[in-house]
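Re: that chain you flagged

S.,

Sorry for the slow reply, it's been a week of failed gels. I finally had a moment to sit down with the sequence you sent. For the record, here it is as I used it:
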Amino acid sequence: MSHVTRRQVVGSGLAAAALSSLPASAQSGPVRIAFIDPLSGFMAPVGDGGLKQFEFEAERINAAGGVAGGRKLEVVGFDNKLNPQEAIVQLEKAIDQGIRFVSQGNGSSVASALIDAIEKHNARNPRQSVMYLNYAAVEPIFTNDKCSFWHFRFDADSDMKMSALTDYIKGQPDLKRIYIIGQDYSFGKALAESAVKMLAAKRPDIQIVGNELHPLARVRDFSPYITKIRSAGAQAVITGNWGNDMQLLIKASSDAGFNVPYFTYYGGGLGAVAGIGRGGVGLVRQVTEWHSNIPDIGMDDIVRAFKAKHRNLDYYYYRVKVMFDMLAKAMNDTKSAEPREVALALEGMDIPIETGRAQMRKDNHQLIQPLFISTLSDNVRFDIDNTGFGFKTDVKIEGQATAMPTTCQMRRPGA
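Prediction finished late last night. Pasting the structure tokens below so you have them in one place:
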């Protein structure tokens, strides 16, 4: 193919083959990255938005000269329907097509399945190894007990984010009663556990008045949940909800006139602010690696270029830019697109980024970068979802202050 990116996945009946059996054109043609995320169903807007940003970053790298001696990056979309079993099917299709780099972010249950499948595949096929670039699945176990040489995470994990949020809450003495609500799968459970533990250590006077999980991507009306939260006397809410679950939760709160602070991971996620509206101004806070209204960091032209190309989307995944920059550096430094060589080059990599520095830990493959706590505001330079509202910084946390201890015992190939 001559295309820079490819959105449609062609049928795959080819058997997987070792690299040595691939034609020379496959070794010198585009370096393909499989994007395995929901592209249909309730969470499709999140997956589609992510795919568009992946394509945008690939085009940016290609315009700068490509990777590994001028090869182009090509992004191939695979629809996993937010289902772990379907994700494995799509992974197998990608491998059958000779794709050696895969990326996913939405759903830690999906991420867990991919880590297991890639570990097994690479053990059986060391000459056809596959590397997993995790841009958003944040369950801490992936860089702790379940760590893998082939897995690299470019988003802060849930504990890192919760530590930042609870440090912020510690400085809010009027908050005494907090409700925790999240999606009923591994990430939602991990977030709730860390919130309870960290609040008890930092603010033992705070009462957790509710700790509830709801079905992932199935709730269409959150008003019954808002009724329970209000009845519990909550003064604030902590949630890790994302996608439509984020949007509908806070919209229900706003519609009910229940105007309390929401401490979120994904309050600025794709589509969330459009659903939240003015009712979230001054109340919705998020912890992220960036937002588009951080002043004077040299990102404005990139934000404008993305908005010009995708008028209904906002430049959300700064970490994807960092991921592509680090991936390109690893391939250029090694002059290779072999996953093992790229992985070794990524370990310990430390680069300047617009918000400070990014370092990929060698011991567990967790990216360390600055984090920001910001609040939904009006009168902003860049708004979200064409609403007139965007985020402004409350606190910046330098990268090294976000690092957490790890239980990872990394097993490297050949060790």
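What I noticed first: Residues 14 and 373 are 47 Å apart (CA to CA).

Talk soon,
D.
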